[in-house]
Amino acid sequence: MAFWACGKKQVEPTKPVTPAPTTFSFNALLVNGLYNGFTYTGLDTKPVIKISFSAPVDHSSVTSSVSLKSKDSTAETFDLAYANHDSTIVITPSGLQYITQYNLNVATSLKSTDKSTLGSSIAVKMTTAIDPSDKFPQISDDALLDLVQKQTFKYFWDFGHPTSGLARERNTSGDVVTTGGSGFGIMAIVAASSRNFVSRADALARMQKIVGFLKNTAQKFHGAFPHWMNGVTGAVVPFSQQDDGADLVETSYLMQGLLTARQYFNGAGADETALRNDINSIWNGVEWDWFRQGGQNVLYWHWSPNYGFAINMPVHGWDEALITYVMAASSTTHAIPKVVYDNGWALNGQIKNGSTYYGVQLPLGPAMGGPLFFAHYSFLGINPNGLSDTYASYDVQNKAHALINYNYCVNDPLNYYGYSAQCWGLTASDIEGGYTASSPTNDVGVIAPTAAISSLPYTPTQSMAALKFFYYKLGDKVWGEYGFYDSFNLSTTWFGNSTLAIDQGPIIDMIENYRSGLLWNLFMSCPEVKTGMKNLGFTGPNL
């Protein structure tokens, strides 16, 4: 007998199908009647933003879905209106701040009248324009130059290190003082004394403090100074791991300043005579020829008591170090011969450029000139007017360099907001989150006031326009206790609040050379400088 089992197959109940959510989409964007993608610059403080969609929007969802915030996430108020049968939202901010970045966002929580949701969010980046009003009363050009020199001088005078008198590296450096920046600051003291910002007696007293510290306290290596020192003890503060000894280029900036001061304090009295003697002791102690590293036909930048010449960085042109070779050739105790200049600095002519950029031919240096401090640091003392040698005419070189930098900013090939005939100048400076040597080939959108202002002797019209713009139009953001802050970026609305000795010094010193030629006249009056430059093959009316 067989038994067969018979069973029923279980049938799963049919699940209800959930309909896919319906969405609607973004159609168009107009800011002040124009479409420019999702980034807008130079806006007024009450721009009208119209965002259109493929369906009418549900008013009740708009307030929670639309947000307007500044770069620091502060929520901004705005008015709402509707157009095109409610398919367009019209957003009008209550009143934005000038030169500020804002982000307008529309979230996917926005709903249409049929309860569809927005398919993708929208983000609009907006930067408001520069406030066109003057931040300070208009004054004469001479009064403005006086004001800029006097205010910037406070960095070296009021903020000078109390023990050594030397210039701090920057406004946050504590006891760290800088050799090159102190050289620039010494020249600023001379200019300030000449203009009666301080008395000659007070300027002499400060110079006695500085020179006494350099002669008796500061660490030296074969007569050369380190890049940074402790302003109390004179001990080296390493610039980097192996850079804990002599810095020949920084030393040359210091000597440029000291020789200028020596020529200025030329009185027959015991104090000024003693100051000159002490400066000569420091100057004559620098063993320039020793930095040829075994008699090579080139100078080397660094030497360390712990690492020797391990950095092994030759000083080649064209850059900021022409003054280093001029000082080395001018030494009465450790001079270098012309072959070191021709081979080491000029690379036997390889420093020549000759190309034309933005309609200006550049005699020397890298493409488009490099950062503008090349035209400043060595020429605080060296007068380029009528000066030439085998390789270039130096007034032509520096004017070309400054004009190329200016023309580049006016053309603004990278479309950075704010660059103009009034807002220009690329050089080494602080940037947001760091430091870089800005130039037309390394442009990150950061303008440094020192670049244009310190070029006054080369581009007086363009530089004066920039100075006025920085002071009158941006003064509420870039003008402080020690003159202009180091740098700013109008594209990102970043404004630095730092001041650096190597940027403040050239502002005072080159304004003075533009106005009176004082520092040029003093430095070029040094008999050993005349001899040294002639030995290198320079010719000119000041030699």
Automatic annotation (TrEMBL):
Cite the entry's keywords alphabetically.
Signal
Q: Which residues form the SbsA Ig-like domain?
A: 41-125
Annotated Glycoamylase-like domain residues: 314-527
Query: Protein name, please?
Result: DUF3131 domain-containing protein
Q: Does the keyword Magnesium apply?
A: no
* Domain DUF3131 residue range list: 150-230
